[in-house]
Amino acid sequence: MTIQLSTAARNAACDGVVDLLDTGTVEIRTGVRPANPAAAATGTILGTFTLPNPAFGAASVGVATANAITGVTASGTGTASWFRAYRSAGNGSGAVIDGDVATSGADMTIQNTSVNSGQALTITAWTHTQPE
Fold first, then answer.
1. How does strand 82-87 pair with strand 25-29?
2. What is the pLDDT of residues 47-105, one digit of tens each?
3. Which of 12, 41, 64, 105 is the least crowded, having the fewest Cβ atoms under 10 Å away?
4. Count of CB atoms situated within 10 Å of the CB of 79
5. How many H-runs (helices) and E-runs (strands) does the chain carry?
6. Torsion of CA 86, 50, 121, 36, to 10 degrees
7. Is 102 exposed, middle or buried (CB count within 10 Å of its CB: 0-12, 13-18, 19+)?
8. DSSP readout, 20-82?
9. CA distance 119 to 98
10. Higher confidence at residue 131 or residue 124?
11. Pairing of the two strands 94-102 and 82-87
12. 3 state DSSP class of 83
């Protein structure tokens, strides 16, 4: 059997993770997502976003939703497939979360996964879910 968390514990764990991202950054990338955030990032960076403070709202039933993130101009060309989110320097910098990117049904949604350098790039939705 696996360990299961109460809703209060899931919310606390979820909030703890996403609080690390306040004023951090998130990169949208091409290629195959690495095994975990400790592994070297792969692919081309298509755009880098600065996250607000707070980056996410409070978790409910183990799910936190990102607050509005200002769009950027794409810095690369390719097919967006994954993201890596980093702590801000004030939070001890380093990768925190990797996830999938798509126009729907992924950890993070963006308006278009076919990205050309110079075009507007927008994150339309992003949630982090803490497993039970």
1. antiparallel
2. 999 999 999 999 999 999 999 999 999 999 999 999 999 998 766 779 999 999 999 99
3. 105
4. 14
5. 1, 11
6. 0
7. middle
8. TTTT-EEEEE-SPPPSSTTSPP-S-EEEEEE--SSSBPPPBTTEEEBPP---EE--S-EE--E
9. 23
10. 124
11. antiparallel
12. strand
Tell me, what's the pLDDT at 126?
Answer: 98
User: Between these two residues, 92 and 14, which has the higher pLDDT value?
Assistant: 14
State the Cα–Cα distance between residues 82 and 106, nearest whole angstrom.
9
- d(CA 76, CA 28) in angstroms, rounded, equals 10
CB contact set of 19 (below 8 Å; sequence gap of 6+): 54, 55, 56
- What single-letter amino acid sits at 70? T
pLDDT per position as a tens digit, 30-48: 999 999 999 999 999 999 9
Domain regions of the chain by residue span: 7-129
Amino acid at 113: T
